[in-house]
Design a protein that fits this description.
about 350 residues; alpha+beta; 2 domains; 12 helices
Length: about 350
């Protein structure tokens, strides 16, 4: 009956229990692992939807800013044979005065040294989103990068392949921009982010559950808690509920408000570990309480058994006259209660 009730719990009911009811984690331990994995998939999908929506909004803002820059400030250029050429001889910095979070630098010369490139990265790196166009590649800094302060490198061939072009110049770029349909573009952007976030985050979360399983296994050994391996794994999945929800809040704030919490990953791991260990200790406490109650019941049963045994021994040690006398005394006592006069014995 309990298992049937557990199966009937919805995703949001389980989510609420996993956050606010640590004392009920024993119910999760009794679940089928397939049910726990199904819950994890729903949880990661829930996170991915929120994160993808935030990234799509950030991406649309970036594309709008880029469109304005391309139409107003971009110099004449041409991309051919994976090489960039411009009509500008000196490095050109482009920045939207309305939004200082975006910055761009163009230098298509052959004289860019490592020292010069380092200077460019420091300059453009002051922006939340920055792009450096060199002769043979594009360097991009974005909150979507694994490390926000690093620049990701892309070849012009990758850029042209994404546009399904062999070459590109200023005129053809303007034509491409005019042909873009915002709804289809943002829908494709959202689906791309959703697929990417779900696949990468689900794999990362599975790896996290394995690390937590090791911690849970050691906790069970030290606390002398008799849980099976799959039961420990179920607990690790539900222990990640709150950290994943916190991450679903943090990602939009990080992307849209440019807020970076340095020790968020450490807090993420610590919260899940605290939930797992606390749930196990509560289960241990409940188990000890049940054992104490069982011991009390056994002691009472033992005491009753001893009393019955003692009475039986006393009956066996009585002589026939004592038994007859005891029987007559009991009979007289019963007659006295009913008010009858006992018959005289001969």
């Amino acid at each position: 009956m309990d298992k049937q009730k557990e199966v009937k719990k919805s995703f949001f009911q389980k989510l609420k229990l996993a956050i606010f009811n640590l004392e009920r984690y024993s119910e999760f331990a009794l679940e089928k692992t397939s049910d726990s994995l199904r819950y994890l998939i729903c949880l990661v999908l829930f996170f991915s939807l929120i994160a993808s929506a935030a990234l799509t909004i950030a991406g649309s803002q970036f594309l709008q800013e880029s469109k304005q820059i391309l139409e107003n400030d971009l110099p004449e250029f041409s991309i051919k044979d994976n090489q960039l050429s411009t009509t500008v001889d000196e490095p050109k910095t482009i920045q939207n005065t309305k939004d200082p979070d975006y910055g761009m630098l163009i230098d298509a010369s052959d004289s860019v040294t490592e020292e010069t490139l380092d200077t460019y990265q420091k300059k453009v790196g002051l922006h939340t989103v920055g792009m450096i166009f060199l002769k043979d590649r594009i360097l991009v800094k974005s909150p979507m990068n694994q490390n926000q302060n690093d620049f990701a490198s892309y070849s012009y061939q990758d850029f042209l392949n994404a546009l399904q072009l062999n070459e590109l110049d200023t005129q053809s770029l303007h034509e491409k921009i005019q042909q873009i349909q915002p709804i289809s573009l943002y829908s494709a952007l959202f689906l791309t982010f959703l697929l990417y976030m779900f696949s990468t985050y689900f794999i990362a979360t599975l790896f996290e559950t394995l690390l937590l399983w090791v911690m849970g296994y050691l906790t069970c050994k030290m606390a002398n808690l008799p849980l099976k391996g799959k039961q420990i794994y179920n607990l690790t999945i539900y222990a990640l509920t709150l950290p994943i929800l916190l991450n679903a809040i943090y990602i939009p704030v990080r992307v849209l408000a440019s807020f970076n919490m340095e020790y968020f990953q450490m807090m993420y791991t610590a919260v899940s570990a605290i939930y797992l260990v606390t749930a196990m200790l509560l289960m241990r406490t409940e188990m000890l309480k049940q054992q104490t109650e069982i011991q009390k019941i056994q002691e009472v049963q033992k005491q009753v058994h001893e009393e019955l045994k003692q009475e039986k021994q006393e009956e066996n040690t009585e002589t026939p006259d004592e038994k007859k006398k005891t029987k007559e005394e009991k009979k007289d006592e019963n007659l006295g209660k009913t008010g009858e006069t006992p018959e005289p014995t001969e």
